[in-house]
Specification:
single chain; 526 residues; alpha+beta; FAD/NAD(P)-binding domain; D-Amino Acid Oxidase, Chain A, domain 2; Helicase, Ruva Protein, domain 3; 3 domains; 8-stranded mixed sheet; 16 helices; 20 strands; globular
Length: 526
């Protein structure tokens, strides 16, 4: 996936489908459209998964809390999509066991029955059956759980993934099927002929050059920024997105030494809290805070940080403190609510909605990572009609994503860095063999090597130090301070690959350190 080659692909006949947005929904639409055989281009104004799509709870799940709300249809859809993605991306999605600890006699049977329903709704695509655990078995499963008053627990299973790595995998899958996929390309104008959208103007943020691209249909898949793009089409478009912020803290794995996660069903605000092993760390979250406006780089609020620490401490024998936090990150969910009426974000549906404007702009809004494939399929059903495209069947239910390897293949890596490359892992290792320094870790506290940096530049369209440390690798989230210390080495490796000078390296290091400081508790207060 080379940017220069992709730019050359803009020339020629009109595109069938132009997708605006390179997050979960946009990349899903690009894969669906390209795999159907439509000439497809995707424009991302910043970097793939720059905003919400790299800041999730890292779960591919049905949504246990929606089951409690009796939103059965949403849970069934999500569980089915969880099962399909588990099959189509074995190198990205893994099975993770969750424990729901019980401290009252009635909690075990109550959650046990609910999770049996969760199993039943998943049907043949269920990962593994839930089961009751005794007090002893609960402690064995999550050794650091608060033991005082513990009665037992329930174990159930959901999927886990790396969101930014899945985004890159989707971009490469779309490219494998002939799509043109570009980052740092901002759509600045939506143009019409006789009242119908038929082209866009897009500015290359690397060079400043503006291109005019013809299209039969334009899809707006910009998540929390959907309303901004809708107003490029119609200045009077009503507000439909209400951002809700979710915050996560990253701790050392010693706070949860087992391989299992904890699901806390009720917190201070009624939201589910997860304590999850991820990338050799422990991830704790999330909050649910309504926000007034969409923000590309949201910051955790002080009350959100304290909320997570307070609630996590109730279920962990070793209470985390601010000094223990390796990183903090915030993401905004694109909740759909017509008219902008104020309401609790916990009560707004996480289901998605496709809206077609009078001039033909197809907007996909809401949803979540787990259902991105179904969101894309629904979007394309509208796009085919709007663009008067030749009808072609959706094939993504069984489409293996780029890098696919059989889950039982002994060659599939199992370490938390190389696994996500799937069949590309051997090629990444070959880069590490090119020069000894490329086989060295970027930092003692970061498992990624120089080889992953080179691979990101050569094959994953990484253009900045931030692209590499925040999304091609997950160094920023896993240890913000260590990633700042690694930035000069990453800049030097990238400069050699991209032909950049020392001034570029200095600018990149300064920009990255300023960004990364917001992922530490010292700088995250609002």
């Amino acid at each position: 996936m080379n940017r220069e080659e992709m730019m050359a692909g803009l020339d020629g006949e009109a595109f069938d489908v132009v997708v605006i947005g390179g997050g979960a929904s946009g990349l899903g639409v690009a894969v669906d459209a390209a795999s159907r055989g439509y000439r497809t281009v995707l424009f991302e104004a910043h970097d793939f998964a720059k905003a919400t799509s790299s800041r999730s709870t890292k779960l591919v799940h049905g949504g246990v809390r929606y089951l409690e709300q009796m939103n059965i249809s949403l849970v069934m859809e999500a569980l089915r999509e969880r099962g399909l993605l588990y099959q189509n991306a074995p190198h990205i999605v893994t099975d993770l066991a969750f424990i729901v600890p019980a401290y009252k006699w009635w909690e075990g049977p109550f959650y046990g029955v609910g999770l049996k329903l969760y199993d039943a709704l998943a049907g043949k695509l269920n990962l593994e059956k839930s089961r009751h655990l005794s007090r002893k078995a609960t402690i064995e499963a999550i050794p650091n759980v608060q033991q005082e008053g513990l009665d037992g627990g329930t174990m159930y299973h959901d999927g886990q993934f790396d969101d930014a790595r899945l985004a890159i995998t989707l971009a490469r899958t779309a490219a494998d099927h002939g799509a043109v996929v570009l980052n740092q390309m901002k759509v600045v104008e939506i143009l019409k002929t006789d009242g119908h959208i038929d082209r866009v103007r897009v500015r290359d943020e690397e060079t400043g050059t503006v291109h005019e691209i013809n299209a039969k249909v334009v899809v707006n898949a910009t998540g929390i920024f959907s309303d901004e793009v809708r107003r490029l089409d119609d200045a009077e478009a009503i507000t439909m997105i209400e951002p809700a912020q979710g915050v996560h803290l990253v701790l050392d794995k010693s706070f949860g030494p087992g391989e299992n996660a904890i699901m806390v069903p009720h917190t201070d605000d009624g939201r589910v809290l997860f304590v999850i092993p991820w990338h050799d760390r422990l991830l704790v979250g999330t909050t649910d805070t309504p926000m007034k406006k969409a923000d590309l780089e949201p910051r955790a609020l002080e009350e959100e940080i304290e909320f997570i620490l307070r609630n996590a401490a109730r279920y962990m024998a070793k209470d985390p403190t601010r000094a223990d936090v390796l990183g903090v990150y915030a993401g905004q969910r694109p909740l759909v609510h017509r008219g902008g009426t104020e309401s609790s974000s916990k009560s707004i549906s996480r289901s998605h909605e496709v809206v077609v404007s009078n001039s033909g702009l197809v907007s996909i809004m809401g949803g979540k990572w787990t259902t991105f494939r179904k969101m894309a399929e629904d979007t394309m059903e509208h796009a085919v009609e709007v663009g008067m495209l030749e009808p072609r069947a959706c094939i993504t239910e069984t489409l293996h994503l780029h890098g696919w390897m059989d889950r039982e293949d002994p060659k599939l890596p199992h370490d938390h860095v190389r696994r996500y490359y799937g069949s590309d892992a051997a090629a990444v290792d070959a880069i590490a063999a090119e020069r000894p320094e490329l086989a060295e870790q970027l930092h003692p506290n970061i498992s990624y090597r120089g080889a992953e940096v080179v691979w990101a530049v050569r094959n994953e369209m990484a253009l900045t130090v931030e692209d590499v440390l925040a999304r091609r690798t997950r160094s920023l989230l896993l240890d913000a301070r260590a990633s700042m210390e690694a930035a000069p080495r990453v800049a030097a490796i990238m400069a050699a690959e991209l032909g950049k000078d020392e001034a570029w390296q200095k600018e990149q290091i300064e920009h990255y350190r300023e960004l990364a400081s917001g992922y530490t508790l010292e700088e995250s207060r609002a």
